[in-house]
Design a protein that fits this description.
Purple Acid Phosphatase, chain A, domain 2, six-stranded mixed beta sheet, 6 helices
Length: 270
């Protein structure tokens, strides 16, 4: 199964990049399933219902969120009516929506997508992501109920993301990190057959400070004082993510590649 995961969509520039490139590459790469992390798509803070519709119309089969899942208040209601949007599995137990779902991909094959939040260096305490993932993976065995399993590990610490990759090794097709907006160069297939990349990067303008216009972040670093609100950078965006081709029988990865399209980080297609 040929799957694409796109990292954190950042503001208008990120949405524009997804809208421009995803329909074409979905056809050219013969993709069976596409996951997009959209938690920064609305002005860098959360995802609105309208912007979710844009990402879905562009070709996303599933949108994952993150620690900013409900910064846009209309998502509290919209997520209950749109099953293609997932919030973190270990978010507050009273939160609306679901943290995992079994989707139907091209040809009727099933894809399990789940997202968890890490604990290290995160601003709010969340439940243990490892114990949250375990029962979901057990009830949806790779190569059985699920032809492919994709895990979005949304957190700050590279070490915690790597630990989740090894924890899921052999039980997921892909474990990929999100949240830091900086793509890592460690796409690999782990010993048990799970594709892994520490961070998918962002779909946004890389002439920025992790997607934000450079002026205000630099002012705060240099002076220690805020002057204005952060605003997403609005230049040409790069589409960043990871491509994985998994075996239809086992669900394990056969190939994994970083994806960089447009903007500053151009890379050849898989």
């Amino acid at each position: 199964m040929r799957c694409l995961f796109l990292g954190d969509v950042m503001g208008r520039a990120g949405r524009a990049a997804v809208w421009e490139h995803l329909p074409r590459i979905r056809d050219e790469w013969r993709l069976d399933f596409v996951v997009v992390n959209g938690e920064n798509a609305s002005n860098g803070m959360g995802l609105s219902a309208d912007h979710a519709r844009v990402l879905l119309a562009a070709g996303a089969d599933c949108i994952t969120l993150g620690d900013h899942a409900f910064d846009q208040k209309d998502m509290l209601q919209f997520i209950e009516t749109e099953p293609r949007i997932l919030r973190p599995l270990n978010f507050a137990k009273s939160a609306p929506g679901k943290g995992f779902r079994l989707f139907t991909a091209r040809g009727g094959r099933k894809v399990l997508v789940l997202q968890v939040l890490g604990q290290v260096f995160m601003k709010r305490p969340f439940d243990d992501p490892f114990s949250a993932v375990e029962p979901v993976l057990k009830s949806h065995p790779l190569g059985g109920m699920a032809s492919a399993v994709i895990v979005d590990m949304h957190c700050e610490a590279s070490s915690e993301k790597m630990a989740m990759g090894h924890y899921c090794d052999g039980r997921a097709s892909l474990v990929v990190g999100t949240h830091t907006h900086v793509p890592t160069a460690d796409a690999q297939i782990l010993n048990g057959g799970t594709a892994y990349q520490t961070d998918a990067g962002m779909c946004g303008d890389y002439n920025s400070v992790i997607g934000m216009d450079k002026g205000e972040p630099m002012r705060r670093f240099i002076t220690g004082m805020p002057k204005a609100r952060f605003t997403p950078a609005a230049g040409e965006a790069t589409l960043s993510g990871v491509f994985v081709d998994s075996d239809d029988k086992t669900g394990l990865a056969r190939e994994v590649q970083m994806v960089r399209i447009g903007g500053r980080l151009q890379q050849a297609a898989p």
